[in-house]
Design a protein that fits this description.
It is found in: Membrane. The chain is 67% helix and 3% strand. It is mostly helical. The chain has a domain at 23-123 and 153-342.
Length: 427
Amino acid sequence: MMTQSDSYRNPEAILDIQDRPRPEQWLILSIQHLFTMFGSTVLVPLLVGLNPSIALFASGVGTLIYILCTKAKIPAYLGSSFAFIATMQALMKADGYPAVGQGAIAAGLVYLIVAVLIYHFGANWIDRLLPPIVVGPIIIVIGLSLATTAANDAMLNHTHYDLKYFAVAIFTLVITIIFNMWLKGFASMIPVLLGIVAGYLMALACGIVDLSAVAKAPWFALPAFDVVGINYDFKWYPTAIITMAPIAFVTMTEHLGHVMVLNKLTKRNFFHNPGLHRTLLGDGLSSVIAGFVGGPPTTSYGENIGVLAMTKVHSVFVLGGAALFAIVFSFVGKIAAVIQSIPTPVIGGISFLLFGMIASNGLRILVDNHTDFEKKRNLVIASVILVIGIGGAYLQIGSFQLTSIALATVLGMVLNLVLPDQAASEN
C-alpha cells in the first residue's frame, strides 16, 4: 500500500474526501447515508432493549468524534455494533442498562489503550501482517458474511417463504441497479436513496408498511438519556466489564477490515495517514460516549462503505452531514418513525448490492496486486480465510467469542507469517 500526501486526489472519485458538495447536493447525499445506516443502528437497541433514539444520537455524535480524531481524512460512518448483542442481552436481563453502559465504556477504553500503544510503537507491522493475499480474502469475507443478513431482510418473515416480501426486495434491487447504471448527473450519485424511496413506494402498494407508529409519534421527543452517574446510583459491574471489554479485540479486526476497504476505495493508506492510532482513537471514544449516554457500543458500517463504493462520492462532508441529521432526527419523533417504518425487504434488496460491492473490492485487491494463485501458499491462505469466514466458524471460550471474521483474520495472518514463500514441491 502506498502512502499519499494530503494533496493527493483520487481520479476515480466523483467527489473526493475533501470535496465539499453544493448545499442542495450535500443535503440529499447525507440523507442517503442516513437511510442506509438507520435500520441497523436502531435494530441493535431494539434487540437488546435500549432506546433507539439514544442509539441514533450516539451514532451521530460518535461519527463526528471519529471525523475529528482522524483529521477529517477518512469517510466513515459509525453505528451500533452487532458484535456485543448477545452479551448485552444477558447483561440487560441480569443488571439492566447500568451494566451495559459500563461494558460499552470498557470496550471503548480498550480501543484507546491499543491506540496509545500503536502511537508509541508504530504501525509498520501492518504491511507485514496484512499483505494483499490476506487483505483481499478478508474483505471478500466481510461482504459475503453479510449475505445471510441481506437474504433474511429480503424475506422478512423468517418462519416461511413469502413471495410478496421477496418481490419487494427484488424490485428494490433491480430499480437501484437501473438507477446506478443509467442515471446521469447528480442523480447518478444517489442511486441508493432513490432505490430506497422506490422500494418503499412498492412496499406501500403491497401493504407491508406499518404506519401506525408514524401516526403516534410526536414531532419533538427528548430521548431518555441514561447518563452514567446521574440517572442511577453508581455501582461497579465487574462482570459487564470483563465480558464486554475482550469483545473489543474482535471488533478491532472488523475495524481493520473496514479501513482496508476504505484504503482500496479511496486509493489511500489510512494506516499511515492519519494513522491507525487515530482511527482506533475515534472508534474508541465513540463507544465511550455511547456508553455514557445510554447507547450500545459503535463501530464503522459496511453498509455505508458500500454506498461509497457504488456512488464514488467519498466526501467526508457528506458523512458529517449524515451524522448531524442522525442527531437532529433523534429528537424528531415523527421523522425517525417514518425512516423506521421502512420495511426490511427494502433494506434487504439494497443490501444485496451494497454487501456484494464490498466483496468485489476484495477481488479487485487480488487482481490489482497480480496475486499468483499458482503458489500453494496463496491458495492455502485464501482458502482458509474464505471458508472459515463465510462458513460462520467461531471460537467460543466461556463468555468470550471470536467471530468468524475475526477467526478467519487471525488464521490468515498466522498462515501468512509461517508458510514459506515457496513450497518444497514447487522448487
